[in-house]
Design goal:
The structure holds two protein chains of two kinds. By secondary structure, chain A is of the alpha/beta class. Chain A is 37% helix and 21% strand.
């Protein structure tokens, strides 16, 4: 059975290059911590943190990462000291994404795997929003996602796109920026 | 002899460890208020894949593990895997007989086992070969150091997912991805006056999904020279004169002098890692030629002293092709095919007449052992993430392997290379040249609540050479309080008898009969506490080892019984031995680790300590005794400071091992003769504690972009290694020396190296 399944999967389109490198549970904890080091976080968020978990329709890797992040975030008591809700959403297009973020007052957008080709347009769509975008993959950050995670020598590494962070009114404190790899 | 002192030492060190734990928690509590330390603490979490074949943090893994980063290897002047283990890991230790390092864990080490009680993986590919079960943990490992991304050292029984040999644990060498090895790199390094190493490597990405990393290296070492005191080997049984101990030399019976030519090693090595989409290919090849100035394990007659053409040569190559896919959000599939080839030679020239009994010949004899093994296999694995959030995951896999082994011994005239006789010690016995090995495993993980994770699994291994073996593991991980985790682990592991143990024979060795796999069971409780950027681990363990394979010296009654059953070979000496399942070990102890960073993450430190009380019962000594070579207390400490990106990093590392008995301490030499004092030593030889310090400076060379340096100084305080040189009794079992001479230690070493990076 396994042989057959493995053979048929040769036709699968998912690429290992978009696999998660840092465990989702750890990504969730880092996300929650990093949010509290954003000087504008509470002003932007209000009384409750709303996180949108963006997945790609028909992409198993993406679907699983979104589901796992939802469970992981739900187990964390607070994000940036505030209560929080998480919601899964499938990506349609960049404009619709921006509309959803505005309408639902999303303060954190987590981008699951599968969007390497869409990150550029996504960046343009949310640039005018006060929003922390978080990428599940390291490759997203140089292309415009504000915060991401990489694995270097068996340890996780935080990546920050500072230019994009400024555009989206994210103001990380220097204490944590020195722990990150910064892209400008 | 009693070992009460050992129990007291465990108690004292336990009190010390608890004290350190208390101090560290207190210090950490103060550190938690520093800004950014909570993020730093998360970034310092090790990410591991070895313990459960899945991506997880070290804290969540169902085993105690150490992750050693490439940065650590560079900061602390590490040159080989055994150095990394000694200076940087928890619970594992090596000992150096100047040939291949012995490796042990948690107070247990089996001398001369070729590393076959610990499983070595390179990118998940098992390296231990079937003839001896051997793997190289020193310079002969076969991976250029600069290519290593990190090392995962998992301690405790690990057969649940990996099968044979994972008794001490599993070491996984993970090589770099292209993004972390980008460009082309050239390295030259020398241990001044003793060795040099050159290496080159490259890492390139082709588009978004394809990448290639490769590295080649060459290491050459000669010396230092060591001086050995006189070892009296007595009178030659054949010539009646004193034994000749040098190549065509005088008959003095004395083995001694300064060895200038017989301590060397040469290691060409190459690794390649290629991935494209879901496909990953790993290739590796290495040869390892080495010579030691003395024999660490007893030979009745010594090889010729300082003879440069006595050497061992191993050659190995492997290929591993893996394909992974996630067809649905629930299911992951992985298929892997692999193949390995290994061959070994041991060349050994002896001028003593009693080891060269061939009528009419006066030339020295050249003993030539050769062995080859090849194996190919496939592993299929499915992972079912039932709820898609990793809270309930079933891992199922099967590994089918076909193994072929051949070995033989020849004796030649050392001058003419003419063969004296037909090959002996031929493996395999009979026509069955191929072994089929099947392993199947199942692992279930369940996280019923965020604060508790359960892991249960078992693997069955079957082969025609032994009865099926089941290796279970149960682990519970409880996030007991803020930053605190408690792990409870029960695990079993086994080691299949090597082909050499099962089938070898010679004039001093009777072929084994019905060897069973060695077994170990272990229970472990571990507490991990994170507070700010500091982390503390404290774990206690107990393990039971049974059916360990060792050499049994035949008794007079056994000779009589063999003769009566007409099973006595025509050529068998009266001190012959036979591999049997005769040894058991019972041990308990603790592991402790305290690590973290301070001064704004510029200073990094770690302290690892292990203490154990180990009781070994074997055929030779009878009553329980500590295992030879194995320190019952050992550990390491390190601290490094980074002055800034363009400035040096200074690292100081220390490795400590406690007092321990030397190899062969508890062996008897004539158990069948009652009126002789059966032990080789009038007083059991214990080696004094050893402390080794290493200071390393590394950083970029100013003004020359891309060029970096590393320099280290290493000093060992003791000049004794836990191995015996020569023999304290002569060829006629007459004790000639009241004390043992210990093997020497290369006490002072200095290394300098340069690396140039051609960045893309």
């Amino acid at each position: 059975m396994l042989v057959g399944a493995a053979t048929s999967s040769l036709l699968a389109r998912r690429a290992a290059a978009e696999s998660i490198a840092v465990p989702i549970r750890l990504q969730a904890e880092l996300l929650a911590k990093m949010a509290s080091y954003d000087r504008n976080f509470q002003a932007r968020t209000g009384e409750r943190v709303r996180t949108l978990l963006l997945t790609k329709l028909g992409d198993p890797e993406s679907a699983r990462a979104g589901a796992e992040m939802k469970t992981a975030l739900a187990s964390i008591p607070s994000i940036g000291g505030l209560p929080h809700d998480e919601e899964l959403a499938s990506y349609a297009d960049a404009a619709a994404l921006a509309d959803i973020c505005r309408a639902r007052k999303v303060s954190i957008l987590y981008v699951a795997p599968g969007f390497s080709q869409q990150v550029d347009t996504m960046r343009e769509a949310v640039s005018e929003l006060s929003l922390l975008t978080v990428g599940s993959l390291a490759d997203y950050v140089p292309n415009g996602i504000v915060l991401g995670f990489d694995l270097v020598s068996g340890r996780s590494k935080l990546l920050v796109n500072l230019t994009q962070a400024r555009r989206q009114q994210i103001d990380f404190r220097a204490e944590v920026l020195k722990l990150t790899r910064v892209y400008e | 002899m009693t070992f009460g002192r050992g129990r007291r030492h465990v108690g004292r060190t336990l009190v010390f460890a608890v004290h350190v734990f208390g101090l560290s928690v207190s210090a950490s509590a103060r550190a938690v208020d520093e800004s950014g330390t909570d993020v730093q603490a998360l970034l310092d979490e090790n990410i591991v894949t070895t313990a459960s074949k899945s991506l997880e943090t070290g804290t969540a893994a169902p085993a105690t593990s150490t992750s050693i980063t490439a940065e650590d290897l560079r900061r602390y002047g590490i040159h080989s895997l055994d150095e990394a283990i000694n200076f940087l890991s928890l619970g594992v230790v090596t000992a150096n007989p100047l040939r291949d390092p012995d490796i042990g864990s948690r107070g247990v080490l089996v001398t001369g086992d070729h590393g076959n009680h610990i499983l070595l993986l390179i990118n998940g590919h098992a390296v231990n070969e079937p003839l001896y079960g051997s793997a190289q943990f020193g310079r002969g490992m076969g991976v250029p150091l600069e290519m290593i991304d990190h090392l995962e050292v998992v301690i405790g029984p690990g057969s649940v997912l990996y099968g044979s040999s994972a008794m001490f644990g599993v070491i996984n060498v993970i090589t770099k991805r292209a993004k972390d090895f980008a460009g082309t790199h050239v390295i030259a390094e020398t241990e001044v006056g003793k060795s040099y190493r050159v290496a080159g490597g490259a890492g390139y990405q082709f588009g978004h999904e394809t990448e290639l990393t490769l590295a080649i290296g060459y290491y050459a070492q000669k010396g230092p020279s060591f001086t050995f005191g006189p070892q009296n080997f007595g009178v030659d049984d054949v010539s009646g004169a004193p034994i000749v101990t040098t190549y065509k030399g005088p008959a003095t019976g004395i083995w001694s002098g300064t060895a200038h030519n017989s301590y060397y090693s040469y290691v060409p090595e190459a690794v390649l890692r290629f991935s494209s989409g879901n496909l990953e290919v790993n290739l590796r090849g290495a040869t390892y030629k080495r010579s030691a100035p003395y024999a660490a394990y007893l030979s009745p007659v010594p090889g010729d002293f300082d003879y440069p053409d006595n050497y061992d040569l191993d050659r190995s190559a492997s290929a591993d092709i893996a394909y992974r896919v996630r067809p649905t959000a629930v299911l992951d599939l992985a298929a892997r095919v692999y193949g390995d080839t290994f061959d070994t030679q041991r060349i050994y020239t002896v001028s003593a007449s009693s080891n060269c009994i061939y009528r009419g010949n006066t030339s020295p004899c050249l003993y030539h052992w050769t062995g080859t093994s090849q194996w190919v296999g496939t592993e299929l694995q499915g992972s079912f993430n039932w709820l898609q959030d990793s809270s309930l995951v079933t891992l199922v896999g099967a590994d089918v392997r076909v193994v072929s082994v051949q070995a033989k011994q020849d004796v030649q005239n050392a001058d003419t290379l003419a063969y004296h006789e037909s090959s002996t010690n031929v493996i395999p016995i009979g026509n069955d040249k191929v072994e089929e090995v099947l392993g199947a495993y199942l692992q279930q993980t369940w996280t019923p609540a965020p604060f508790i994770a359960l892991n249960a699994g078992a693997r069955i291994d079957a082969s025609e050479r032994y009865d099926p073996v089941i290796s279970p593991r149960f682990a519970a991980n409880l996030a007991a309080w803020r930053g605190g985790t408690i792990k409870l682990i029960y695990a079993e592991a086994f080691r299949a008898p090597s082909w050499n143990e099962a089938q070898s024979s010679n004039v001093n060795l009777l072929t084994a009969e019905s060897l069973r796999p060695e077994r170990v069971r272990s229970v472990e409780a571990v507490l991990e506490q994170k507070l700010g950027a500091q982390r503390v681990l404290f774990g206690v363990f107990r393990s039971w080892w049974t059916d360990l394979i060792d050499l049994h010296r035949l008794t007079t009654q056994e000779y009589i019984d063999l003769a009566a059953q007409e099973k006595l070979p025509s050529l068998l000496s009266f001190s012959a031995q036979q591999y049997r399942n005769i040894t058991s070990i019972d041990n308990f102890g603790f592991n402790a680790r305290f690590e973290g960073s301070f001064l704004g993450n510029k200073a990094h430190y770690a302290l690892n300590a292990t203490s154990a009380f180990t009781s070994r019962v074997d055929d030779e000594y009878g009553a329980s005794h500590p295992p030879a070579v194995t320190p019952q207390m050992f550990g390491n400490a390190r601290i490094a400071y980074e002055f800034g990106e363009r400035y040096p990093v200074i690292g100081l590392a220390a490795h400590f091992v406690g007092k321990r008995p030397a190899a062969r301490t508890f062996e008897k030499y004539v158990p069948q003769i009652a009126h002789f004092d059966p032990y080789r030593f009038a007083k059991f030889p214990y080696v004094e504690p050893q402390l080794e310090l290493r200071l390393t400076v590394s950083g970029p060379v100013p003004v020359v972009p891309g060029l970096s340096y590393r320099a280290s100084l290493d000093y060992a305080f003791s000049d004794e290694a836990p191995y015996i040189v020569g023999r304290p009794v002569d060829n006629h079992n007459v004790r000639t020396s009241p004390t043992a001479q210990f093997a020497p230690v290369d006490r002072f070493r200095g290394t300098v190296g340069l690396q140039y990076d051609f960045l893309p």
